[in-house]
Automatic annotation (TrEMBL):
InterPro entries: Bulb-type_lectin_dom (IPR001480), Bulb-type_lectin_dom_sf (IPR036426), Pan_app (IPR003609), S_locus_glycoprot_dom (IPR000858). Its main location: membrane. This is non-specific serine/threonine protein kinase. The chain crosses the membrane at residues 642-666. Its EC number is 2.7.11.1. It catalyses: L-seryl-[protein] + ATP = O-phospho-L-seryl-[protein] + ADP + H(+); L-threonyl-[protein] + ATP = O-phospho-L-threonyl-[protein] + ADP + H(+). SMART domains: B_lectin, PAN_AP. It comes from Salix brachista. GO terms for biological process: recognition of pollen. PROSITE patterns: BULB_LECTIN, PAN.
Amino acid sequence: MVSTIFSSLTLFLLLSSWTQFLCMAGDNMTSSTPLRDDQMGGTLVSAGERFELGFFTPDGRNDGKKYLGIWYYRYMPRTAVWVANREKPVDNSTGVFSLGKDGNLQVMDASGASHWSTRMKFSSFSFSGMLKLMDSGNLVLIQELTNSSAIRWQSFDNPTDTFLPGMKLDMNMTLTSWKSLTDPAPGDFKFQLDGRENQYIIMRNGSIPHWKSAVSGSFLKSDARLWLVSNLLMNSRPRENTTTKGSSYDNLTSTALNYSNTKLVMNFDGQIQFFLWRNVSWTLNWWEPSDRCSVFDACGTFGCCNSLNRIPCKCLPGFQPKSPDNWKSENFLEGCERISPLCNNEVAVESFLELKMMKAGKADDEFDYSYEYECFNKCLSRCDCQAYSYQKAEKDDNITCWIWLNDLNNIQEHLSDRGRDLNVRVPSSTLVKQVCGSNLSSASALDCNDSCTVSLIVLKPKTSDLFLHNLKHCTLSALVKRKCEICGTTIIPYPLSTGPNCGDKMYYSFHCDDSIGQLSFEIAGGNYLVTGIDEELQKFSIRVGDEDCKATKSMGYRTQTNHSWPFNVIGGCDTGFADVEIRWTAPSEPLCSSLDECNDWPHSTCSSATDGKKRCLCNKSYRWDPITVDCIPASKKKRGSLFLVLLGVIGASVIIPCASFLLCYLGKSKKVTGRGTQHANSSIVILLINKKNFNENSESDQLLKLPSTQKTKKAIRGMQPST
Ligand SMILES: *[C@@H]1O[C@H](CO)[C@@H](O)[C@H](O)[C@H]1NC(C)=O
Ligand SMILES: *[C@@H]1O[C@H](CO)[C@@H](O)[C@H](O)[C@H]1NC(C)=O
Ligand SMILES: *[C@@H]1O[C@H](CO)[C@@H](O)[C@H](O)[C@H]1NC(C)=O
Ligand SMILES: *[C@@H]1O[C@H](CO)[C@@H](O)[C@H](O)[C@H]1NC(C)=O
Ligand SMILES: *[C@@H]1O[C@H](CO)[C@@H](O)[C@H](O)[C@H]1NC(C)=O
Ligand SMILES: *[C@@H]1O[C@H](CO)[C@@H](O)[C@H](O)[C@H]1NC(C)=O
Ligand SMILES: *[C@@H]1O[C@H](CO)[C@@H](O)[C@H](O)[C@H]1NC(C)=O
Ligand SMILES: *[C@@H]1O[C@H](CO)[C@@H](O)[C@H](O)[C@H]1NC(C)=O
Ligand SMILES: *[C@@H]1O[C@H](CO)[C@@H](O)[C@H](O)[C@H]1NC(C)=O
Ligand SMILES: *[C@@H]1O[C@H](CO)[C@@H](O)[C@H](O)[C@H]1NC(C)=O
Ligand SMILES: *[C@@H]1O[C@H](CO)[C@@H](O)[C@H](O)[C@H]1NC(C)=O
Ligand SMILES: *[C@@H]1O[C@H](CO)[C@@H](O)[C@H](O)[C@H]1NC(C)=O
């Protein structure tokens, strides 16, 4: 005990030679009063006891490595807002922080080896001044001149990962993340201005954009809370009450939020985080990227992101992964590409896929038009136009029209409050191929006729600017469709069924809400959002509530008790997502009541099957293949999947794609309309433009009426390019 006291006293006496003030930390130091971490009060504390500067070891780290930093005085847990020697911590030696005679700051160990320093050149022979820790958290080097003083360096100009009120973000400033929670070394992420004021970017590994503010440009309004953060970042209040450059207005007081206890941190995991100090702890108020889909270009070009799904990315209908192997291993960077190119003469019908509640990257062009069709025409008139969208202006009846000329990126779906309708240009023949999955050879029943109901509209352009007019109506006699129509961005494979007239009746457990483009799985226990369909593996996933994960069990039970239920719960709720995976059993031959209902199954005839029901049974020397859902030659094991037939097969004919398209869609809507079900509104409109059949007796008005007279929710509009 006595020896402890004695050694303490010795230490005390030794240290007192280093410093003028003991125990009570001051807020400033000069070249004659360096800071040592082995002395009592070896820190600076700002005058109002807001911040403290000294050596520290990050919480959770036990190797004793020490960093010189600034943290909030007495806030627990201690969080550093600035670190000097990020890359070279002081090992088990005394840390020394000094202001040199030349005016430079230096972090050293006991042996005098430098671990960090500033490199400034002052003209005066000997630097006279001091270093002062302000109540704002700013560490300021003040030079005393004959009649005045000047700030020569400040930590606010050299931030690490934290932005404090009073700083000002300029083009030269970056916030660089720590390497990890306990390692202040520069990490992978940098936050900085993105060219203009109020536009921000997080770069990963130097050059890869990880997040950008306002990716959608004027297409969607940006997050309102970003404005709060912008206000903080653009602050232009005078930094300190010292003679410095800079004007003295204070923008922060004009906002509702009191910024005095806030901070913005570039976190080591890639998130920029805005914190408020509330009561006794930091509250995370805003952060970006806010989810997996807010990461810049999370799903690549033409990839559509849904952060709530276990697998967040899928290609839009009409597109396929650029690199299928990477895509399968959930590396979505490369994105998707068109199955068939635009303005390809081989492709007879161009059309748009109308998607609801979508977000997309910045449009390339913006126009002010009086009518929607002008926007549509603008896009059709250019072969490089990938998509269009429009919105009624607030002030007048005009519309704002956006068109995208480059590959779409940053696509997100199901944004209930923020999204917009997006019309993506996809040749309808591509969709026919993907949706009907057939060779189209069975589509023979097109009946182009002026008198029938408006389902197919053939348009003829008057001039090369593709002004649309002269509608011609066609319809079809065939009614049986193999696949159900696309629901939002989801292609529904056979035999899954969203209505009595598509897919296989046994699998009619799905419902498409056309107004929002969402597919749900409906069973006695409830309705569940379908989050993904894997046609190849014959399974799909549904989202259940966290508390509903138990429902999985009852669904599983139902599978065992009800043999006619073609769905098997195969797992879920164990992936961190409240998703349940369900496999569907392979279908047997489709039910039928008349011969032409078997048109979609070549080599089959409608006759009585062993179960007593009438089915499209395969003809002699063919057998039913439940995988390709087709009659295949009995000798061959398996024929190439019909779903992968190349588009080129379609050729330049309008009739075939038109007809088969209708086979897929129109018969259904026609039939269903008669029943007055909810599907009545979901008819499809195809606009065909046929230059060859140009007709002077055009009625251009008809098109103008089209968007309003047609109560179509899911419109596919198209044209035939000139041949
Ligand atoms: C420097 O700190 C001391 C206390 O250690 C204080 O008395 C003095 O006023 C400070 N100087 C300035 C200029 O703030
Ligand atoms: C740290 O101290 C230990 C003993 O206390 C010594 O063995 C080790 O070499 C020291 N490390 C450095 C980097 O000085
Ligand atoms: C300092 O102030 C005095 C009187 O106010 C003035 O005469 C002198 O020129 C000033 N010196 C400098 C370097 O500004
Ligand atoms: C950024 O730094 C460059 C040189 O480092 C300097 O010329 C420029 O004035 C700085 N810009 C701002 C806005 O501080
Ligand atoms: C960063 O880039 C380097 C080389 O360019 C690479 O080795 C490293 O894996 C990258 N790190 C990340 C996180 O992407
Ligand atoms: C701030 O500066 C003004 C004059 O510019 C001075 O009157 C005031 O005392 C200063 N306040 C502090 C806290 O230094
Ligand atoms: C701050 O306020 C000034 C004066 O009121 C104004 O000119 C400036 O645009 C404001 N800056 C920001 C970022 O709001
Ligand atoms: C902001 O909050 C601090 C304390 O957290 C308080 O001292 C200050 O007066 C507040 N400022 C305004 C403008 O309300
Ligand atoms: C914060 O303090 C207020 C009043 O000072 C109190 O009503 C509130 O419950 C506190 N919140 C928390 C999370 O402690
Ligand atoms: C509406 O759009 C037309 C072009 O279609 C334009 O000439 C007109 O100025 C617009 N009106 C307004 C108020 O912007
Ligand atoms: C498509 O249909 C045609 C004619 O019916 C047939 O000759 C051709 O083999 C079929 N192609 C495929 C890939 O099934
Ligand atoms: C046009 O359609 C009507 C009704 O579907 C049909 O009776 C008529 O024969 C058709 N005309 C032609 C030329 O196909």
